[in-house]
Please model this.
Amino acid sequence: MKIILQNLTKIFPGRNKTKKKKGEEKNNEFVVAVDDFNLEIPDGKLVGMLGPSGCGKSTTLYMISGLQKPTLGKVFFGDSDVTSLEPENRGVGLVFQNYALYPHLTVKQNILFPLQNFKGEQKLTKEEMLDRAQTAANLVQIGELMDRKPSELSGGQQQRVAIARALVKMPRVLLLDEPLSNLDARLRLQTREEIRRIQRETGITTVFVTHDQEEAMSISDIIVVMKNGVKQQVGAPQEVYDDPANLFVAQFLGTPPINVFDGRLDGGKLFVNGDAVMEVPSLAGETREVAVGIRPEAFVPDDSGPMSCKLSSLEVMGRDCSVVFTNDASRKPISRAIVNSDVPVVPDAAGIVRFTLKPHKVFLFDAESGERIRF
Amino acid sequence: MTDDNNKTIINDTAAASPLNVPDELDVGAAARRQKVFKVVRYLITYLFLTVMALIVIFPFYWMVISSLKTMEEYRANVPTLWPHKLFFQNFATAFSQANLKDLFLHTLLVGTISTVLSLIVTVLSAFAFARLQFKGKNVVFGLLMATMMVPGELYTITNYLTVSGKLPFISQPISALDITHTFTVLIVPMLVSVFYIYLLRQTFLQIPNELYLAAKVDGTSDFKYLWKVMLPLSVSTIITITILKMMGAWNAYIWPRLVANDEAHQLITNGLRGASFILPNNETNYPAQMAAVAIVSVPLFLVFVFLRKYIMRGVSRSGIKG
Amino acid sequence: MEKLSDNEVLELVHSDPAAAAQNRYIVHRVNTSRDIGDRNQYKAWVYLAPALILLLIFSFYPLINTFRMALLNGYTSDGFTTAYQVGFRNFKTVVNFVDFKQCLKNTVLLCVITVPISTTLALLIAVALNSIKPLQRMFQTIFFLPYVTNAIAIGMVFKVVFNRVAVGDLVQTEAVINRFIGLFGADPVNFVNVGSSWGANMFVVCTYIVWNALPFKILVLLGGLQNVNKQYYEAAKIDSTSKIRTFFRITIPLVSPMLAYVIITSFIGGFKEYSSIVGIFGETMGPAGSEGQMNTIVGFVYKMLPYWKTGVASAASLILFGIILIVTAINGLVSKRTVHY
Model:
């Protein structure tokens, strides 16, 4: 099922609930949680909505599910406008951040619950229901836990039950709200692969929300980066990583994060801290201040390289080596480069290391607005 | 194997389940149905609440309008839903007929004295249970808690004997011991409430231990600490106990009826029940009776309106979180 | 052993803890230098004294004495007889009393009828209140209004609502309730006046008890409902659960602890029912001419007192205690199986 979000906007009334005294003017503060959001999600894709907390990604998800109504804009499932439909008529599956498993029902009863709601032609016999519940449970590998209560399960197991419950009715759309946030690091890795596998197997259009860029990058077909309720960029993870639309997206994606320096364009050259680190012939006519984003993997150690930095430390991590250095133009106290450990990094007597840069891993942004300057 | 299995079943059900038929959702019909359903649901909900609210209010309403009717109107063939003429005379009649002034005074006296004494006893024992360490604390506390299970009627029988001087171990009735028909007997046997001790102990326990240790370091005595620190921090529970105790005196019926049912000591509730509103023609003057009932109910209303949160606090503590 | 200074004790404990633990003198020294608040055992008893003395006289002694009186055959407190045999005759007397059978029947029926009705109504009202936004506060106030009432006083009001004004047998003014049911074509009923039937009396008493029980139950259940995590309802909505199914499969199980609490307290209260009937009928516990028709177990106990039949009264009160214990135990067992905590 294709999902289209059209001009989706959600405005909440102000949150400060202090009682207003009589005579005091009502100052209606509004919070724009989602601002004029447009998106088309192709059928059968796994979409990760990514952004810092409070960026409106969960609100967007809830608007797709129908639990929250958009202030403006529309939601389409396929060609039908479902904006006015209550969640029960939308046929979506939703996995809540805290799973919301019914505490008084066993795992089996929890999974059966949605099936027992079917009416009319959809109605299933008891055997069919049990069969489907077992299939769904097997899919998420909790087939043996059917008679336990949620309180007797670990976080990861609860999470799987929640997914099984959402999947069992074969929803048009599967929505997951921060599905991994309550799991420990090891389970998180395992479960995210699981989600990807299940999505591939079922082919259900799936949207999940996360603030963890690694999580989103690793399993999504498409990622949507949001900030302050505004969509920043949409695309395949690698695409977005390699071609960020602005400084925010560039900074949000990638570990270790991108290094940002204050730089200057002058006569077709890019200057960082006085060094002419790169030729930019296509912008020869421009003279301006820019923000320079350099991915850690863009640095190539080169004794005669144009960029000079002061080495702080070297962290060897097997195949790779992490070079920690300082540079006066950097916006952060330290910067980090990831280089192949085969190439020795040897500072000179003054502790200076020199790099050449891979141009396609270097991005220029407007110093003020953070908009990308392409070259 | 599992994977294959999954796929086939999912594909089968996908065909069978209309949920999965894409792009053919009849949104218009569903939206209309859901709107109608919503309206009907709200109608039923509000209708139900309104009917129940009317039933709940009706006795109060009937009390008020009956108290304002003349006997003629009250006796009228068809009961009127609002008095033709507001007859306030009933309240004066009620006051004199039921001797309400004296009843108020008695109740106020008994209520105030028993509240004050009860608070002292409660505070002291709650402090001991919450703050002091002594051997047998848990046993004593458990024993006290267990008495909450026992219906009060069990105590009443013996207490009645005790205050009437009919002590079971003494063969002859000793009239000298007969202290019934005094205010003392209304107050003393009801002074200790295990529930209040429990309530206040819970409040005391919430006061951090460090405060006590700090006071000790400063050389504060236990009693001074109780008076200067714990009580001020537990004011709301003290208020709750005060209100409940006062209301207890106001609503007490059984014990006062048993031991002090004479004019000089009657409390308001059994005074009201016992008051005679018989007219010379042998009819009951119901309007005057309702006026008396209304007068007795007014203080409770005021307490409810202005001090509701304190009462609620007692209720919520009494059970759920136990 | 010679006296040691604090420092010496400390040193010994440090150097050889095992030996120090065997040394009674050191153990004594360590034990008595307890933390603040542990000292002065007697002080706690001083604080407790007023409460304990009063409880001894007015609670613990009566409790024992009640058993004693109940188990002495034919015990009376009139002071004329002193020697009694131990036995269960008082219990037999109680059970064989025609009056008591009536009281027992009335009490049990009151509970069995009113507890389910008031609990169901309270649950429905609480759910309805919880589901609306406009006027919620207004309705809430109305439903809590009867929470603090005087059982006797409002009982008198109920009497008036159901009362006919009659001169002799001639009905002068029908009860307002009869006027109301007359609108639906029903015949007027003699609810509380002379010659009224047991069934009609029972109806009035049950109505009053239900009315009186509602606010507390609504309060507790509404509190329970408001504490239920909204996400369960959202999850149910996502799964297209009907409102009725949501109510039975989610709401009721999740407020079941409050339901159990409300049911058990109202059963206990129901078995101790007395004041509301006094409010309606007065101490005669029934309409004129059929006195005692609506009497309850507690009423029976108090009826025995002025006759000094304290042995019988004690036996009756112990039977009441037993019933309450059994009901509490059954409730506990049932809720253990059905209540979700």
